[in-house]
Amino acid sequence: MSTAPAAARRAAQLGFLQAIQQAQHEEMTRDERVILMGQDLRANVFGAAQGFLEDFGPSRIRDLPLSEAASVGMAAGAAMAGLRPIVDLTVASFMFCAMDQFVSQVAKNRYMFGGQARMPVVFRQALYYHGGTAAHHADRPYPMFMNVPGLKIMVPSNGPDLKGLLKTAIRDDNPVLCFEDATLWGRRGRGAAPEDDDHLIPFGVASVPREGTDVTVIGIGGGVRHALDAAADLAGEGVSVEVVDPRTLVPMDWPAILASVAKTGRCVIVDPANRTCSAASEIAAHLVEEGFGSLRAPVLRVTSDDMHVPFSPVLEKQIYPSKEKVVAAVRRVLGVEK
Amino acid sequence: MNLERDLALEMLRRMLRIRLFEEATIELFHAGELPAMVHLSIGQEAAIAGACLATTADDYMTGNHRSHGHPIAKGARLDRLMAELLGKAGGVCKGKGGSMHLADFSVGSLGESGIVGSAIPVAVGAGLAADVLGNGLVALCFFGDGAANEGVLHESMNLAAVWKLPVVFFCENNGWAVSVRAGELTSVEDISVRATGYGMPGVTVDGQDPVATYEAVSAAVARARRGEGPSLVEAKTYRFHEHAYGLRVKNSYRDQSEVDVWRQERDPIDLFRRRLLDEGLADEAAVEALDAEVRAEVAAAVEFARDSPYPEPEEAYRDLYYVEGAST
Fold first, then answer.
1. In this predicted model, what pLDDT tens digit does every residue of A109-122 receive, in sequence order?
2. Where is the Transketolase-like pyrimidine-binding domain (chain A) (predicted)?
């Protein structure tokens, strides 16, 4: 069968959940100060903690009650007192229950106490949209946290990046928010699974999964997939799209973004967050301030509409970025709008 | 309790440190040297000193906006605390925390929170670290009667109880949540009864008696160190000054006579000093010597704070993130 090698290659690639599983297992093996806490963790309901209880024991693998505020604040305190907790908050919308703890304790304690505190803690949460979960579960709230100094934020677009960034996050002495785009859960990542236990990807270093010369399309999380799909379609029309994946939003790799736009002169940003004050908005503002001389067209944002997520699949899909919306935006910045 | 002389004098010393330190801040306030209002613990010294003396300097502690007394009683240097109140570079938080947010990690003080109740789960986390690392430490969690109605306290007490974490929840019930009498917007008269709902022991003690708080917290600490889990201790006390010194409240919500009675009859330092003399644990000379010692310490702290330079403007841009190899 001609599909067998392709299937084998696909199976060798790293999915999102596998990436999480591997990163957490390797880092917990490496450093016994790393502990993992989450709701429904021991039963492995979310699929990224298979065998952890057996391997690391009940002191380091803990099920959390439905107490998000205490869970987040407790993780902060544990980090300040010598542990390196990972907290699986499961769904990003649940972060709202703990907003004071994120803002007042996790983000501010080191600064307010004049550098006395170290805060080695990772909070993982899925962007659980595009699947009929409706408005309460489907938020993509990372831009809210970009507005809180003191946090680091990663929004990976594929399994290998997720693994490498998460391992870096666990070793970082600062608080990291890891947003996992659930539209990527079932997809295999680009490239083979990294074998190296020290497969680390530094924060603040963008990747360029596709090089091009006419337009820079910056993708955030699941937005990278739309960018790549659109780039492939547009190549058939003779349009050369460069796709940039910042991978981490805080810190942001501004030099890489500015360099790409300096080359292409045009930029479209694909961000699954709500439009107003999105990551795309921040990138657009930065390009206007620091890269205005390079721009040959307005910077366009392809984001979710400023709307709550409706339940019905007939209603839901239209509000998000899509390949078609990216293609249309690229045509517009090229002045070939149809 | 058969009070030992050394412990008794240490209780008095730490209460005096809080009292005289804060009286000095009042003078600094009127001299225009304090950049902001201060929330004073005057009147609550016995509760704080008794609780802190039941822990070691290595044990952890978190607290609230009424922030000065906790690190003082935990053993922090007064000079760096005072410099922090003046916003100076020599401050314990380099001038970035201020009066409501003191922290001195060298004595286990993991920080006070200006957001009421917000640091409660941080103490639970310190207890979790002690539990996982097996280092035998305990976390002392100060909160007030106002914070007793914060949801995060409920979550935190439940979590600490189910995991049997070494945490002592210590409520300074000073009778007033800013302008509202504690009993008015709280469902129970004694906050300690809520402990039952979390399957942990709860006790209410006289917060004007450092021995009573010391004994209750010592029992809770011993229980925590045995791995039997958290406790709730409530100290009934009273705040002698306004919610914040410098905050002008036009319509008085509490009768001056109520304040006067507490000040005249229930001043914790007067009461304890008298007890020491009555029980022969100290004579007048020893008590006066202690008073002079602490006055000198506070005067030196004020001098240190005044002499300390203001931070350079760049200081505002430091300490946001830990950076490997960078000095802090």
1. 999 999 999 999 99
2. 14-187
Nearest CA-CA distance, residue A307 and chain B, Å: 30
Enter the pTM of the model.
Answer: 0.96
Structure token digits, residue A338: 């149809």
Spatial CB neighbours of A160, under 8 Å, sequence gap ≥ 6: A14, A19, A189, A190, A191, A192, A193, A194, A199
Q: Phi, psi at residue A124, to the nearest 5°? A: -110, 135
Beta strands in A146-220 (DSSP E): 152-154, 176-181, 188-192, 207-210, 215-219
Do A207-334 and A4-192 have the same topology in CATH? yes
| Domains located in chain B, CATH noted | 5-317 (3.40.50.970)
The string of DSSP letters for B91-133 reads STTTTSS-GGG--BGGGTEEEEESSTTTTHHHHHHHHHHHHHH
Closest Cα to residue A123, out of A55, A162, A170, A168? A170
By the 8 A CB rule, do B153 and B118 touch? no
The active-site residue, picked from A25, A137, A226, A308, is A137
SS3 per residue for B248-292: CCCCCCCCHHHHHHHHHHCCHHHHHHHHHHHCCCCCHHHHHHHHH
Instruction: Say which of A65, A76, A110 has its CB closest to residue B125.
Output: A76
Q: In the structure, what pLDDT confidence band is assigned to residue A1 with cuts at 50, 70 and 90?
A: very low
Helix pair A254-264, A279-290: axis angle to 10 deg? 70
For residue B169, give the nearest of B134, B142, B190, B196 by alpha carbon: B142
Alpha-helical regions (H) of A49-93: 52-56, 68-80
Taking a contact as any Cβ pair under 8 Å apart, which residues of chain B between 284 and 323 contact chain A?
318-322
The rounded mean pLDDT for chain B is 96
Hey, which bits of chain B come out as E strands?
Answer: 60-64, 109-113, 139-144, 167-173, 176-177, 180-181, 202-206, 231-236
pLDDT at B150 > cutoff 50: yes
Model confidence band, residue A336 (pLDDT cutoffs 50, 70, 90): confident
Q: Answer whether A114 sits within 8 Å of B139, measured CB to CB.
A: no
- Give the pLDDT band of residue A188 (cuts 50, 70, 90): low
Of A70, A104, A117, the CB nearest to B124: A70
Query: Catalytic annotation on A226?
Result: no
Question: Is the separation of the CB atoms in A144 and A92 below 8 Å?
Answer: no
CATH number for the A4-192 domain, one of 3.40.50.970, 3.40.630.10, 3.90.1150.10, 2.60.40.1730?
3.40.50.970
CB contact under 8 A, A73 and B124: yes
Nearest beta carbon to residue B159 from set A67, A81, A100: A67
CB contacts of A67 in chain B (<8 Å) are 155-156, 158-159
Report yes or no: B240 and B263 within 8 Å, Cβ to Cβ.
yes
Interface list for B 62-91 with A (CB within 8 A): 62, 91
CATH number (3.30.160.270, 3.40.50.920, 3.60.21.10, 3.90.190.20) of A207-334 reads 3.40.50.920
8 Å CB contact of A73 and B118: yes
Per-residue model confidence as pLDDT tens digits over A229-251: 999 999 999 999 999 999 999 99
Confidence of residue A189 (pLDDT cuts 50, 70, 90): low
Tokens of B31: 């001299």
Q: Give the Cα separation of B44 and B53 in Å (integer).
A: 15
Question: What's the average model confidence in pLDDT over B245-262?
Answer: 87
Q: What is the pLDDT of residue A45?
A: 85
Q: Which helix (H) or strand (E) holds A18?
A: helix A16-30
For chain A, the domains span: 4-192, 207-334
